[in-house]
Amino acid sequence: MRTSWQRQLAPVVTGALVSLSLAVLTTAPAQAATTAAHPFPTHVTYQVGVMPSASQASRDAAVEKQYDSWKATYLVHGCASNEYYVSSKGDADATNNGPVSEGQGYGMNIVPLMAGYDSNAQAEFNGLWQLVKDHQDQYGMMQWQLDGKTCKYYSGGTPDGATDGDLDIGYGLILADKQWGGYTADAKTWLADFYAHNVAPDGHLKCEDDGPNTDTRPSDHMLDHLRAFAAYDTAHDWNKVVTRTEAVINEFTSAYSATGGLLSDFVVNAGTTSPQPAPANYQESQPDNIVGYNSIRVPWHLGTDALVNGSSTAATSYSTAKKESACLKSESGGNPQKVYPHTKLNCTPYSTSDQAEEAGDSVGPAAMAAGDQAWTDAIWNQLATNPFGDGYFGETIKTLVYVVMAGDYWSPASAGTSANDFSLSDSPSNGSVAAGSSVSVGVSTAVTSGAAQSVTLSASGVPSGASASFSPASVTAGSGSTLTITTSASTPAGSYPVTVTGSAASGSHSAAYTLTVTGSGGGSCTSAQLLADPGFESGATAAPWVQTSGVGSAPVNNDTADEPAHGGSWTAWLNGAGKADTDTLAQTVTLPAGCGTATLSYWLHVDTTENTTSATPDTLKVQLLNSAGTVLATLAGYSNLNHNTGYTQHTANLAAYAGQTVTLKFTGTETDANGGTTDFVLDDTALNVSP
């Protein structure tokens, strides 16, 4: 969503701000009447790690100095008389140094944390919030990019929101409510809208409110925010979001960065148990499949969660932050200036020609959580400098990191008396068992607010001929249990969504578990390729493929002069007509029971004349449907931004659907919104199974 790649490619703005009828704050409006409940400095004893060696008084003074500088440079009174915004000055993120929702969220976190020191903080916060309310998209989230002169939506297409900014805005409203009171209704309305549009069905965070349910951005994984949401807003199952976010982190890092704990800027297949790095230019014109200007923030977020919530409640954040700290210390040789904004997942620099202060600054909370005193001190010392002349992005992140590292970052989840509540998770979140056998699952609970309470466990959704039992069946929040699912020889093969539920006086929480039952002994599966006419060489009739076209042009064709085939003479060419169109291609197939491996593969060439680096008017979805036509899973999603010079092979794991009859469906949609056209060309498909 954000064009953060511009920080790498665009020159730093060193001149004066564009002349506007707006004033950068040097003096603030009249003092707010409400007294701050948690005035700065609010000294916090963190749950784990070390503090910088500097004294508490000098740490507080450093934060105040940085805040004064940040406020004078970036906090702008405009566009309306009752509005404030955080300027993107120096980073070209919006025209006329305007605001982006990411920065607005940062400001709505910084200002309430500095209340008490800044006597005008509540008036400034109200102005920041007013601008958000005046610029909401169709889902009630902030329009992600505004012109600094007119405050009109600046990006292309229908106004939409970005998850990172909207997360911080929600967290800022809770901070304000705990600091001054009076924001409860606004906060809960915002969180309800966010939950409805930014949380995927399985619980992972989407990249934007109008985006697909298949991807996520790790820099949005602000687990301390999500835990605060869970304590504050019990009307929505935020613990489900916490659990799935932690699972994505663990599943991704174990597969792609087991030693370093690094996460790429964007992650696809987030709705499966096999999330993976996005393609190189998935949403932004930088290598989105490695650490970039998005994911440099992950050590800050995970380190902060570990510091505030401890190594038990925040076990995933704690373990991952320690790995990231060690990884980036090794990359830089202990010099924060040599933590590079683009880093490979194996902890080596992608490029050393691009440097930015926020890359090293963001490691500070992770270094603290890891207990590395020397590394913590080195990063703390860098905070007092701006070695590369960074603008809004680096200086704003620095301000928040300063608050954390100074020991002044208080959590609204623990501010005041909280109602009793708990979280529930299972590990692993999926498993396979042969009919007639059993499988065990670890079930964990944790206290998220208030005091520990008794939690009764149950499971629903087990298949016929199977039973579920817990040992023990009731636990005190903070303790664990073991779920055992026992199948019989008559239990049908297939994939079953099982819901694990914990019930207590405060309410109920649930976790999802996917059970795959294979035939007893697995003897019903033999190695085979199941798709008929996988390369479309049977010609235009295409049977048993079923094809449709919104403009009357059948996808399967042999126009290899315009679009060469990957193999043979025929392809399936979806869209590309230069007009609004939806094309589909589908085939129904039965996956034998007992197959431990079922891999879909296909070759795809995306060609486009769309002239955009952010809008996605043309898309292709790869989905799996059941016999009733209900979507079981969206296996992948592509758009005009995935254009390439030739074919690329893609794969998906379908083993969880063994024993079922499913329909594989490709759906290409072209809106013709931008005047360009996109071709999605498929060839040489396969669905290989084996025991």
Automatic annotation (TrEMBL):
Signal sequence, renumbered to the chain: 1-32
Keyword match Hydrolase: yes
Pfam families: Glyco_hydro_8
SUPFAM superfamilies per UniProt: Six-hairpin glycosidases (SSF48208)
Gene Ontology MF annotations: hydrolase activity
Gene3D superfamilies listed in its UniProt record: 1.50.10.10
Coiled coil start-end: none
Keyword field: Glycosidase, Hydrolase, Signal
Protein family according to the UniProt entry: Belongs to the glycosyl hydrolase 8 (cellulase D) family.
Name of the protein this chain belongs to: Glycosyl hydrolase family 8
